Amino acid sequence: MPEVSAASPESLPTRIGEYRVLRKLGEGATSEVFLCRDEFHDRDVAVKRVRESAVRDPVDGRYYSRFFAAEAALVGRLQHPHVVQIFDAVDGPAEQYLVMEHVPGSTLRRYCRADQLLPLELIVEIGFKCAMALGYVFRQGLIHRDIKPANLLAVESGGHLTDVKVSDFGSALNLGADITQVHRVGSLTYMSPEQLDGAALNAQSDMYALGAVLYHLVTGHPPVEGESQAAMIQGILYGSVVPPSQRRQGVEPAVDEVILRTLQKQPADRYDSWDSFANALAALITNRQVPRGNLQAVLDSERFNLLRGLDFFSRFDDVELWEVVHQARWQRFPIGHKLMRRGEKGRDFHIIAQGEVAVRRDGQTFETLDAGALVGEMAYLAPSRELRTRTADVEATDPLTTVSFTPETLGQLSLACRQRFSEAFISVLVRRLHAAHEALSHPQRIL
Ligand SMILES: Nc1ncnc2c1ncn2[C@@H]1O[C@H](COP(=O)(O)OP(=O)(O)OP(=O)(O)O)[C@@H](O)[C@H]1O
């Protein structure tokens, strides 16, 4: 399947339904994908149109219709930053198509080539994001069943891979609704033994496939190779897998361990949940078991895990936390940096992600705040302009990492996420009120 097909202009439709076609993005066995303009919503979208020949196919036509129906059933349902959103599905007499979020970039297929391999830390980061995304998908009652590099879209910017999104839910099994399981959908190269066998599937089957993709990304080879389909099947069911460290220099035993665990023949021998798999991947980064290479920047997975540990975000779910990871301004400050000065106007607020600050008035420290604490929210929440003045100096007494928002950037978050912020603000304010009340009633306690 070509990644990006340079379609001849004459074969390019001018419109698909209400969408103006800009160019062809790619094609698969059953469909073509076009970059289109959604004028109503003022955004670019990817429109996946089922080939007429596919639907008419006398043998497989009804399966193809089923693939379309499976994806169409998910319109508006999967909302996760690492899952391609499906905006609309049209099942017309003339054409069937899906309207999806456009992902600018390519797919992970190109990064499986031995001469294009990604740094290890980026592969682990990709694994972490996909594991979290598939955990979300599983909680919606779905098993993807066709996790492969071509279905993991790579967001690229300036020639670099910056993010990843799971796509193509045509083969998805809805545990709540599908009574019969069609077996052997999916790509043999990444298929779990139980999927081959026709046994019942669960989260561990997608986990195997994601592990196989990670193996391919790390080594440039799929975990099982064979000259023929029969040899492949034999290998998947009974063969042993060469540890990734034997195929790529610099791979630590801990990385071998995580990947090989997902490729165990028995689902029960793999991780027991997506969360434990994601945590094992995150630990490889935290424990420095993958080289940090030239990428000095903090990884999204580290940010995510940092936020997950903070009290302020304890009621945020994973999707909301990812929003914060992507939309907040992350800043680092040295010791001595003045985060705020008394008397200054300002409406931004910060959550301390790492480090410590002293809150001072007239040179006297009256409070120290550390990870999870909120700074500057009083001016943010103030109901009138006059009250938007900082009432204290705030200075870093430790190297500081903060997560900051202005009223404008907070306003760009989803309603659900803003709701979580309001709840977190209220609980901080109630705790403060309570402390102030205690201090007033028992002044000796705070001496
Ligand atoms: N949302 C998207 N944004 C950008 N490009 C996309 C998007 N969806 C698909 N593509 C491109 O189109 C190609 C074909 O898409 P897709 O794999 O979904 O088609 P398919 O017919 O389901 O393929 P197959 O049946 O072989 O898995 C992808 O490999 C990718 O290059």
From TrEMBL:
<dbReference type="Pfam" id="PF00069">
    <property type="entry name" value="Pkinase"/>
</dbReference>
<dbReference type="InterPro" id="IPR045269">
    <property type="entry name" value="Atg1-like"/>
</dbReference>
<dbReference type="InterPro" id="IPR000595">
    <property type="entry name" value="cNMP-bd_dom"/>
</dbReference>
<dbReference type="InterPro" id="IPR011009">
    <property type="entry name" value="Kinase-like_dom_sf"/>
</dbReference>
<dbReference type="InterPro" id="IPR000719">
    <property type="entry name" value="Prot_kinase_dom"/>
</dbReference>
<feature type="domain" description="Cyclic nucleotide-binding">
    <location>
        <begin position="312"/>
        <end position="413"/>
    </location>
</feature>
<keyword id="KW-0418">Kinase</keyword>
<keyword id="KW-0547">Nucleotide-binding</keyword>
<keyword id="KW-0808">Transferase</keyword>
<dbReference type="GO" id="GO:0005776">
    <property type="term" value="C:autophagosome"/>
</dbReference>
<dbReference type="GO" id="GO:0000407">
    <property type="term" value="C:phagophore assembly site"/>
</dbReference>
<dbReference type="GO" id="GO:0016020">
    <property type="term" value="C:membrane"/>
</dbReference>
<keyword id="KW-0723">Serine/threonine-protein kinase</keyword>
<dbReference type="InterPro" id="IPR018490">
    <property type="entry name" value="cNMP-bd_dom_sf"/>
</dbReference>
<dbReference type="GO" id="GO:0004674">
    <property type="term" value="F:protein serine/threonine kinase activity"/>
</dbReference>
<feature type="domain" description="Protein kinase">
    <location>
        <begin position="19"/>
        <end position="282"/>
    </location>
</feature>
<protein>
    <submittedName>
        <fullName>Serine/threonine protein kinase</fullName>
    </submittedName>
</protein>
<dbReference type="Pfam" id="PF00027">
    <property type="entry name" value="cNMP_binding"/>
</dbReference>
<dbReference type="GO" id="GO:0005524">
    <property type="term" value="F:ATP binding"/>
</dbReference>
<dbReference type="GO" id="GO:0005829">
    <property type="term" value="C:cytosol"/>
</dbReference>
<feature type="binding site">
    <location>
        <position position="48"/>
    </location>
    <ligand>
        <name>ATP</name>
    </ligand>
</feature>
<dbReference type="InterPro" id="IPR017441">
    <property type="entry name" value="Protein_kinase_ATP_BS"/>
</dbReference>
<keyword id="KW-0067">ATP-binding</keyword>
<dbReference type="InterPro" id="IPR014710">
    <property type="entry name" value="RmlC-like_jellyroll"/>
</dbReference>
